[in-house]
UniProtKB/TrEMBL annotation:
Pfam families xrefs: Beta-prop_ATRN-LZTR1, Kelch_KLHDC2_KLHL20_DRC7
Keyword Endoplasmic reticulum in record: no
Top-level taxon: Eukaryota
Protein name: Attractin/MKLN-like beta-propeller domain-containing protein
UniProt feature, compositional bias: Low complexity: 496-508
Amino acid sequence: MLSKTTLAYSTILATLVTLPSFIIAQCATPSPAERYYYSLASANSKLYMFGGSLGDAEYEVWYLDLANNFDTSCPPWNKATTLLTSSSVSTSPHLFGVAFNPNNKDSIYVQGGDAIKSTMQQPIVYSTNQNNYTQPTASVGTPISARSQMTATVDSTNNKVWIVGGRDPFPFGQDGVIKTHNDIYSYQFNDNVASITMDKVSINSPYGPPPARFGHSTTLVNNRLFTIGGYIGVNETTEMIIDFASASVYDISSNSAISMETTGDIPNARIGYSAVASQDGHSIIVFGGIMGDSLGSVTNDVLVLDTCTLTWNKQYINGHSNGRATHQAYMHGKYMITAMGISGHVGKKPISSDDVAILDTESWTWVTSIPSGYSPSGVSTSPSCSFDFPPLPAEARVAGNAPKSYDISVITNPNAHHEALTTPEKGGIGVAVPLFVIACLVGAFFWYRRRQRNKSRQLNPRWMPGALSSNSMTAGSSQPGAGTSPKNDYPLFTYNNNTDGNNGQNPGAGTTANQGGLRTYTATDHDQWERQLIQDNERSIANDDKPMARHEDVWSRMRGLHAPGDEEQRH
């Protein structure tokens, strides 16, 4: 038995042996925590994170270094050495803001959201080299009004950013009056980072104005802006979630906008999801979100919208990733990188998700790392297809021909097949078809059972219970054969045997002789007659409606039943 001293030394030794591997397994790189409702923007192969729910670290700026080895077990997070403090003039803690870099240089613009300082309601410039903010000026056009939960979509080809929708800001960390916007602003940039040209776009929308929405997503694909999801304001205190059964499309070239039905496997409504343009140049990848049902669960769904036909497809994914919501995503070549956000709720309190996930969008597999030396390629400039903007009516219409409760300007999708079914319709058919098959099988079973019963039914009528005796032979017969049958001598009627055609001889098996020439016709006689009748081919040979000889014989026996004077001889 080991002493206490020996046991103590053994425990210490075991701890020392396992300690190095434990230390090696830990990630020593610091990382942000509890970040959701933040915004992302890239510059110089770095992915910067701004704003969000930060606890006490309201001014921190973090970035992922995409040029270094990238492994999700220890992501390459870095904390920017900023000069930001609570006394900074321009910046402010904020939620639901936007961040964008129109020319992929060393300056990132940050704007809006529910912020403590009103200076956030116009774009401010964050220098990735100097780690500080400056306030630019709007040189031309109309400055945008203060707003939150809008979208900022970069058009790097034209050095533009498109701001779509949003709502008036709430007081930081509080609810407020819901006032929504359905406008589109364009920001034109040049080499001078302090100068922005802002213009409110005058949109040609022949089926009526698009809905005012917030908390949505807007993605630029092949010179068109596709806006989906989000909320609309029902009144000043209530919002409604917009489903994915339609998409608003703005064509930059023609300055025209329509709302069109989507088709395919239309996903359920959700909020707090991410949406990015796929590398193929014509698809939008949607990930995660909080389901719009009563449960409010966080999903890990990956959905793909083919913008050529506005067709949805739920993508099967290899591997597993936890559900994530209120996050952002970024396309690094074929890899979709997503980080932070929440994974659920405890009561009304969100559960932060402080990890990073990587989705390979070629193999559709969640991976744990990006290969060293990976050089990303951009979105395809020659996609296999593109969205065909439909001919617009010459005169403005009041509404579209397929209005929704949240958008009366929706029109039908010409690419949708009439036989195409929605997910609820597919579910209905999936239930109805098996029920129909089961009903047919049950009907066939009862039909077969009835037929078998008819085939096996005894030809001899059993008019009285107990009339059928055991399978003993008729009295006087030792071998079964012609004229023998199971004995069943229950009397049916009597007849005058003097007219049976054989002068009273051989009364027949089963018949009982009585005094005065009367005979008793029993159930056995009737059974034999029916069996012989089935075997009789006389009807099939001569179908001339003449009575058969067997019928004549029976009727001749029955003629004397009521002959004068026979009543007293009956039993």
